[in-house]
Amino acid sequence: MKNNFYLLLTIIILSSTAYSNESLQKREVQQEPHVKKVHTPSTKIYSFAFENLHNQVSTITMQNDIYSFPNIKQPIVMISLFSTWCPPCRGEIPHLANLQKKFKEHFFIIGALVYDDISKNEFAKFMIAQKALFFISTNQVENLRFAKMITPKLKLKKDFPMPLMILFYRGKYFTHYEGSMPEEMIQSDIEQLLEKIK
């Protein structure tokens, strides 16, 4: 009798263990494997049309932090956001004109007028007086759209210091300057980029 009891107990334990293992295996098979959802970054395309007083347009597109300047053949491009009422901006203009003249084969400047209520006639006089011998966009709607897109990327606030000059090389951001900068400093950066072209 005692042996029968142990035999029965052993059968119950073995069948219960077998049932548990089988049940566990079924549950493991039924569960779906954990799948990570991969979120691809947005590929939003930004496009800007900078237009000067002579209705000439220079366009810029940006996607995934690559900047395309289809109207510009030079590999080094600077965009300078400025206002006529800003003394450091006015002081920077002749230096930018010198750099444009000195490196014209490889360097192109787009001035972009922002936060300014100067008339077109007054601005034409301003350009002559300041010797602004480079492309300047007076389309402030587009200029501000560009400013609102680029300033967060540069970790700047909406009320950014002016002039704000952004230097690009072959479609990629290289550096930027906040406020008035010595001509020699900008020239040194341009020369550094010119070494890559050789």
Provide a short characterization of the protein structure.
With 198 residues, the chain is an alpha/beta fold. The protein has one domain (45-197): Glutaredoxin (3-Layer(aba) Sandwich), CATH 3.40.30. The protein contains five helices and eight strands.
Describe the structure.
The chain is α/β, with parallel strands linked by helices. The protein has 5 helices and 8 strands. The chain has helices at residues 2-30, 87-102, 120-130, 140-153, 183-197, and strands at residues 45-51, 57-63, 66-68, 76-82, 107-113, 135-137, 164-169, 172-178. The strands form 2 sheets. Strands 6-5-4-7-8 form a 5-stranded mixed β-sheet. Strands 1-2-3 form a 3-stranded antiparallel β-sheet, with helices on one face. Mean pLDDT is 84; it is low at 4-40.
Topology:
Layout: H1 2-30, E1 45-51, E2 57-63, E3 66-68, E4 76-82, H2 87-102, E5 107-113, H3 120-130, E6 135-137, H4 140-153, E7 164-169, E8 172-178, H5 183-197
Parallel strand pairs: 4-5, 5-6
Antiparallel strand pairs: 1-2, 2-3, 4-7, 7-8
List the main descriptive attributes of the protein structure presented here.
single chain, 198 residues, alpha/beta, Glutaredoxin, five-stranded mixed β-sheet, three-stranded antiparallel β-sheet, 5 helices
